[in-house]
Amino acid sequence: MTAELVRGQNHPLSQARLEVRVSAGRPIVAGATLGDEQGRVRGVEWVAHPGAPTLPGLEVSKQAAADHRLAFDLDALPGTVHRVSVLLALPAGVGGPVRFGAVAAPFVAVTGLDGSEVASYTITGLDTESAVVALELYRRQGIWKVRAVGQGYAGGLAELLTDQGLSEAQQLAGSINEAVAQGLARSVSAPPPRTTDTDRSRQAAASASGPDQPYAGPQGASGTVPAQSPYDAPGPQGATVPQTGYPGGPAQPDPSAVTQPSAPTGGPVNYSHPGRQAAAPPPPPPTAPPAAPGQPAQPVAGDATGWSMEERLYNQVWGMFEDLARTTAAYRSAVDFADSRLEQELDKVLSDPRSRIGGQGDAAREAAEAKRAGLVDQARAALDRDLAQLAAEAEVVEPALPAAYASWDNPVWHGYRVPMEIPMALRLGDLRLPESENLGIPMLVRLPLERGLWIDSGRAGLDDPLTDSDELRRLAMDTAVAHAARLLAVYPAGEFTVHVIDPAGSGASSLAPLVRSGVLDAPPAAGAAGVGEALARLTQRVDLVQMAVRGGVADSLPPDLDTAEQLLIVNDFPHGFDDRAVTQLRYLADEGPAVGVHLMMVADREDAAAYGPLLDPLWRSLLRLTPVPDDHLADPWVGHAWTYEPALVPAGSQVLQQVLSQVAAARRSGNR
In 129-241, which ranges are E strands? Predict the structure, then answer.
C-alpha cells in the first residue's frame, strides 16, 4: 500500500533498489546530492545533475523533462553517505516559468523497479521558489527511510546548494543550467499536438497573409498555441512502459524519458498503433490484411490516426521513431543488466580465496559468462524481431510519403507540381542508431519552422581526421541549398522567399541551381555593404511586423511589404560581418521566427571563436545539422544519440533543377 506523505513525514524503505518518479507537467531539471551524517555535501563530485548524471549507486536525468525516473541502489552508495536529497529546479534562461507558483504542483513517488509505489508526495505551497528539495532518502541506525521535505529556494539552485554546504554552489548551478541549455539545443522536438485539417487551413491562411495576421507558431487542435521547446511538447497518452534498471545493476534508459505506450517490452511492434490515438476519432485509416496465426500484422502506409493521409503518415513516422527508440532502449538495458550480473558473479567468485584458482573457479567463471551470453542473445533476438518489423513498415511507408516528407530519390518528385497548401512538416534527413544502421527514420520538423537551422561546416566532432575542410564547406553549402529548395518546393507559389548572403562569393557553385532557376528575388548579397543592406532590410521587416501586430494595426503595413515567409541563408559567417551586423543577425535569430523570418547559417563555430561567449545563445537557438553523418542529435524520450544523415540530392540527378524550374515558373505566373 502506498504511503501518501505530507511535508516532514517519513516512511521506511524495505528495498535498496528504487526509482524516484517525478511528474511536473512542465519541463524541469531533476538532480540529487549526497550528504554525510550532518547532511553536508562535501564537493561537486557529490552532486548528480544533467551534466554529470551518474554517481555510485545513483543515476539522474540527462535533460530537462516533464517526467523523470531517477534510479537508486542504496547498497551501492559510498559508506560515508547518510543522506540523498532529490532536487527539482525550473530551467533557467529558456523562456519558461521562473517560479514553481506558476506551474502545477510537482508529484514525486518512490517506487520499486516493478513500478509499485512505496511512498508518494505532492509538493504544495510553493510560490516564488525556483528550486526545491523534494525528498530525502536517509539512513538511520542502518535502516533507510524517505522523508517528504518540500523546502523551496527563491534563489534557485545556487541558494539550494549553498544551503547544503557546497562552497562552489554558484559555479555548479551555472554549469547545470548550461548543460540543460545544450541538451535543449541538440534535441529533436517531439511532435506537437495533433492538428486538424481545419486548423491547418487556418494556419496556411495566416502564413500566406504574412504580417496581416498575428503569427502564432504551430497550431494545435484547439487553435494557436505558443511555440514550444522540445520538452514542452506532450507525448502520446497511455500506460507506462516498465523499464528495469539501477546503477550497478540493470541499467535503464535515460530516466528523463517521457513514458510511452507500447506492447510489452521485447514483444513485437504493434502496427495498429494503439498508443498513437488522437483525442478525437478521425476517419478510419487503412487497415492491414489479416495476419496468419502466430505472425505479426502486415504493415500498411498510413496505419496511424489522423484526419488526412498526410497527417496519418506524419504520425506513423513519429510512431516508428518512438518504437525504434524504445526497443533499442530495452536492448541496451538488457545488455547492461547482463554485464552487471556477470560482474557481480565474478566478484563473488574472486571474493572467495578457495575459488580463485583451480577448476572450481574456472567453471564458475565460464558459467557466469555463458549466462551473460545467453541473456544478450535473447535480447538481441527480440531487438532483431522488432527491427525486422520496423524495416517492413519503412518499406511500405517510404514510397507513400508526399514530397515534403520524401527523400530526393523518391519517384514522387518526378511527378512534382507546385502545391496549393502548406504541408504539416518537412524532411531534413534521416536518423539512425548503431544497433539499426540499415533502418533510417525520416527526420520531420513541423512547418512553419520554429527554430533556425545551422549547417555546421566545421570539423568539430568528426571522426575522420583526413576530412578536407574545403570539401566540408562545399558539402555544407550543398546541404543548405537542398534544404532551401525543398522549402521553396513545398510552399505554394509566392509564399516563401529566399535571401542569400555570400560575402566572398565562396558558395557560388553550390548556389548555382537557385540563381539559374530564378527563384531568388535578388542575387546573393556580397561584400560588407551587401551584408549590411540585406540584414537591415530583414531587421526592418521584423520590426514593422512586430509593431503592427502588437499595436493591432496590421492593415497599416506598407503595401509593398513581402508577406511571404522569409529565409535568410548566411554563408561563411563571420566573414564580412562587423559588430552591428552580428547584433542584427542575433536579433533575427531570436525574433524572426515569430513573424515569419527564418535563419539558415552555414558556418564553422571555430571561425567565430573571437567573439567568445557572446555568440553562444545564437548557436544554441539554432538546430545544428551536419553535411555528413554525425551522431549529435537526441530524441526527447530516452536521449539516445542518433546519427543524422542529411537529405542530399543524388549525384548526377537533375531532380533539383527540374523542381526549381517549376517553382520559378509558378512564381512568374503569379507575378512574383
Answer: 131-140, 143-153, 219-220, 223-224
pTM, two decimals, is 0.64
Q: How far apart are CA 271 and CA 291, in angstroms?
A: 11
Asked whether 477 and 500 are in contact (CB, 8 A), the reply is no
Distance CA 517, CA 489 (A): 13
Cis amide leading into 574 (omega within 30): yes
d(CA 546, CA 588) in angstroms, rounded, equals: 12
Cα distance between residue 172 and residue 160, in whole Å? 11
Residue whose C-alpha cell reads 545563445 in the numeric block: 617
pLDDT at residue 406 in the model:
95
Q: Hey, how many other C-beta atoms are within 10 angstroms of the C-beta on 358?
A: 9
Is the separation of the CB atoms in 644 and 431 below 8 Å? yes
- The CA-based angle 491-652-410, given to 5 degrees, is 45
Give the CA-trace dihedral at 431, 432, 433, 434, to 10 degrees.
-140
Q: How far is CA 262 from the centre of its chain?
A: 20
Coil, helix or strand for 546? Answer: helix
Length of the chain counted residue by residue: 672
Distance set, CA 179 to CA 149, 170, 172, 185 (Å): 26, 15, 10, 10
DSSP 582-619: HHHHHHHHHHGGGGTEEEEEEE-GGGGGGGGGGGHHHH
Which cell goes with 9? 513525514
Task: Quick: pLDDT tens for 211-247.
Answer: 333 223 333 333 332 333 332 333 333 333 333 333 3
Residue whose C-alpha is closest to residue 148's, from 4, 324, 294, 356 = 4
For strand 597-603 and strand 65-73, is the pairing parallel, antiparallel, or unpaired? unpaired
Task: Please state, in angstroms and as integers, the Cα–Cα distance from residue 483 to each residue in 59, 248, 511, 646, following that order.
Answer: 39, 45, 12, 9
What is the mean predicted confidence (pLDDT) over 536-561? 85
Phi/psi region, residue 166 (left: phi>0; alpha: psi -120 to 50; beta: rest), is: beta
Q: How many CB atoms lie within 10 A of CB 51?
A: 18
Among 343, 657, 414, 417, CA closest to 513: 657
Kindly give, in sequence order, each residue whose CB lies less than 8 Å from that of residue 580, ignoring residues fewer than 6 positions away: 532
The C-alpha cell at 504 is 566572398
Question: Tens digit of pLDDT for each residue in 507-538?
Answer: 999 999 999 999 998 999 999 999 999 999 99
Distance between CA atoms of residues 113 and 219, nearest Å: 38
